[in-house]
Design brief:
Elements: E1 8-12, E2 24-30, E3 36-44, E4 50-57, E5 72-79, E6 86-94, E7 99-108, E8 114-121
Antiparallel strand pairs: 1-2, 1-8, 2-3, 3-4, 4-5, 5-6, 6-7, 7-8
Signal peptide: 1-19
Keywords: Signal
Protein name: DUF2147 domain-containing protein
Length: 122
């Protein structure tokens, strides 16, 4: 199976506390164009994983953006207990391109204002 990688840069809109907690509003940035695609609300779940739902969609390419409000885009992302600022095991769904990315891994930048996610198509 050919592996393709997705690079999503998500910029923090709200502030993060000193401890690593992704909870809050984030902006999804297209890695190829630099365009803002959507605003995502990320919440920490009771099992310690994170999930993110679209709360606003920008430039939806002629698509009714209301279709994607509250759409689950990010799920099961977990903090790596061995590495500060690293996350593993997530799943990302791109509802516009109709692609699912699995084995999502992420890393916060040093200022904890951006997270870069990578994963496999599948």
């Amino acid at each position: 199976m050919s592996l393709k990688f997705l690079l999503i840069v998500i910029c923090l809109i709200s502030t993060i506390s000193y401890a690593v907690d992704l909870s809050g509003d984030w902006k999804i940035i297209d890695d190829k164009t630099g365009a803002s695609l959507a605003k995502l609300k990320i919440k920490k779940m009771s099992d310690g994983s994170y999930e993110g739902r679209a709360i606003e969609v920008f430039n939806p390419q002629g698509i009714n953006s209301n279709e994607f409000k509250n759409f689950l885009i990010l799920s099961n992302l977990r903090e790596d207990p061995k590495k500060y600022g690293y996350f593993t095991d997530g799943l990302v769904v791109d509802p516009i391109r109709k692609v699912t990315y699995k084995n999502i891994n992420g890393k916060l930048n040093s200022r904890e204002t951006m997270i870069i996610l990578r994963g496999e198509v599948g």
